[in-house]
Amino acid sequence: xxxxxxxxxxxxxxxxxxxxxxxxxxxxxxxxxxxxxxxxxxxxxxxxxxxxxxxxxxxxxxxxxxxxxxxxxxxxxxxxxxxxxxxxxxxxxxxxxxxxxxxxxxxxxxxxxxxxxxxxxxxxxxxxxxxxxxxxxxxxxxxxxxxxxxxxxxxxxxxxxxxxxxxxxxxxxxxxxxxxxxxxxxxxxxxxxxxxxxxxxxxxxxxxxxxxxxxxxxxxxxxxxxxxxxxxxxxxxxxxxxxxxxxxxxxxxxxxxxxxxxxxxxxxxxxxxxxxxxxxxxxxxxxxxxxxxxxxxxxxxxxxxxxxxxxxxxxxxxxxxxxxxxxxxxxxxxxxxxxxxxxxxxxxxxxxxxxxxx
Length: 358
What we know:
Layout: H1 15-32, H2 35-59, H3 65-91, H4 116-129, H5 160-167, H6 171-179, H7 192-220, H8 225-251, H9 261-264, H10 271-280, E1 284-286, H11 289-294, H12 301-306, H13 315-328, E2 335-337, H14 338-351
Parallel strand pairs: 1-2
Helix pairs in contact: 1-10, 1-13, 2-3, 3-8, 7-8, 8-14
Pfam family, one: FA_desaturase
Domain Fatty acid desaturase: 67-335
Protein name: Acyl-CoA desaturase
């Protein structure tokens, strides 16, 4: 689905009114950040590290099935928290205002295969700047999935339901290879030398990650080495499936819009038009506080795209205000429970796997 609504909205109100209202909300939150926000992120860090330590300790005794189940569950939850609520949001600079070098976007290296600097370039810059603009936002299908009629169809897309399903349990590997931007080399947007440098960085990170999860901790488990190894593989796989689910449900439900370069009119795009494109190009997942924390508050994907550098714990309180503004401006606010967004996302994957004329 594409739209020209990035230039207008259903009420006919100027998009600059939208921009001014959202700018005021952002300024309010920036002025109000303080002790409670700092306490929140430090609490999440403490909980995540406690779960990680507890999970690894339990897996060291994982010859006993209850210990394996408990250890794998704790380690899986720790990895989800580290990736979603910590790594993703810290690397967006959401906590840079604290001035704490331990929780800063320039120093944090997450428990994920792709190096932080590579991810910040493709995600923070390319994706959040050119959200859902075909040909510029490489996250629109991650260069392998066709998610918009403006994307050229190729026979390989007939298989995209299969390889999307296979991507989920190895999602961190898919993202790491995607962040190399190897597809930019043939057209000259990236040099071979730069690609080789990025590849070396990825190899170093991959060795560290594999050594930690698949060599060091299994060896420390002694007699429980094999079940410990299986627990680590399972935790990483479940974390990857969850990350894939959250990200795809926040970007690819059927009602989320995509834009051609002409429709987006990026040359001279105003603040209000940028806000409008972010809202139309994202979707929320409805649920309770636990769901929000485990998604890194990306269940509020709309608020995250509108305010990517605001503390994630603020999104829940901002969501009703953003939704009300959208209603007054006649802007569709895509939101629904996880099962509905998941089904809608798969509908989009299936629909665009065949040529547009069908």
